[in-house]
Design goal:
Elements: H1 11-24, H2 29-32, E1 36-46, E2 56-60, E3 69-71, E4 80-82, H3 84-92, E5 96-103, E6 107-110, E7 113-117, E8 121-130
Antiparallel strand pairs: 1-2, 1-8, 3-4, 5-8, 6-7
């Protein structure tokens, strides 16, 4: 049994650990959406002040976890962008994509005030590519369809 930590985890590390456990508990794309060969998630944060946050992109292949929750980029915010429903919509249709805008519902400290609504907007785009799944021949090369 590993020793217990001497100090309580910071809010940031606690949130990171919750995300890790949640991600580990989800199915792989291969299991959840057998015909998906690639999923691309693009997040563009809408500037509320300068400098804006950098855009983020994630590319997932069949072995990746089908986990579509992304933390707010502000380090002191506890908000999460939940894109599971949008991803399911994109993955349910062949060669499709979805896009939209969300606002962070978390809270953070700013302007000298504690626990203020974050409200950082994000424009997201999720595209999914579908194709036939091929069994591997054991050589790392996909088998050709018959």
């Amino acid at each position: 049994m590993p020793p217990q930590p001497r100090q309580k985890l910071s809010a940031f590390r606690e949130r990171k650990e919750r995300f890790r456990k949640a991600r580990d508990g989800t199915q792989t794309l291969r299991s959840a959406f057998p015909d998906a060969t690639l999923v691309n998630v693009h997040l563009l944060f809408l500037p509320e002040s300068a400098p804006p946050h950098a855009a983020q992109s994630f590319v997932m292949y069949p072995a990746a976890r089908a986990f579509f929750q992304y933390p707010c980029p502000y380090g002191d915010c506890d908000g999460v962008y939940e894109l599971g429903a949008a991803a399911t919509q994109a993955l349910a249709r062949e060669n499709s994509g979805v896009s939209g805008t969300l606002e962070c519902s978390g809270v953070r400290s700013r302007d000298g005030l504690q626990r203020q609504p974050c409200g950082l907007g994000v424009r997201y785009a999720i595209t999914a590519r579908h194709g036939p799944q091929h069994a591997s021949s054991g050589t790392g090369v996909a088998a050709k369809p018959l």
